[in-house]
Amino acid sequence: MQYWLMKSEPDEVSIDDALAAPRQTVPWFGVRNYQARNFMRDAMRVGDGVLFYHSSCDDPGIAGIAEVARGDGVLFYHSSCDDPGIAGIAEVASTPYPDDTQFDPESQYYDPKSTREHPRWMLVDVRAVEKTRLMTLPEMRAITELADMQLLRRGNRLSITPVTPAEWRCIMLHIKKKP
DNA sequence: GCCAACGTTGGC
DNA sequence: GCCAACGTTGGC
User: Fold this and answer.
1) How much is the average pLDDT of A143-151?
2) What whole-number percentage of chain A has pLDDT above 90?
3) Closest residue by Cα to the C1' atom of nucleotide B8?
4) How many Å apart are A156 CA and B3 C1'?
5) What is the C-alpha separation between A141 and A136, in angstroms, rounded?
6) C1'-nearest nucleotide to the CA of A157
7) Which residues contact A97 (CB under 8 A, 6 or more apart)?
8) pLDDT tens, A158-167?
């Protein structure tokens, strides 16, 4: 059993989106970094613990369309973004398989160099277990036991990072109480 | 808006 | 293979 932290932009896939999905499970599409891919392809096992992290999101804007009643249209507008931080707990829910978005010319994640015979980008499914309060970066930085977390290292941009069992236990303890 | 860090690209 | 230029991520 291993532990991971996986970053998502909440205006793309948030912890709420994952909880609302069938079986509370979403494919972790869109990773286009070899190190992060290799974690999913080679190291993750079904049942591994995942910290569901919301990274800072893009500009405010219309994030969805809904219908209230009888055709009343509603545009979901994200007026501002929350701080980045851990927003929930999840688990690895599948073995690796190809990321479909790499084959779709309409997708922002399209990779013209990838083929179905030799897919370049693999992903796993992630099942949301529970939404937590937002544990922010400043809060994490203030905890001595988390000082060496890969997430907190200067210049870290990797969207998937391993978490040690000690870091996991420490975060589980802190996230259940008030900051 | 700024910028550090790091990945990718392409000329040689 | 080297490496400068450029692009992206993502916190601040």
Assistant:
1) 94
2) 70
3) A33
4) 14
5) 9
6) C9
7) A122, A123, A124
8) 999 999 999 9
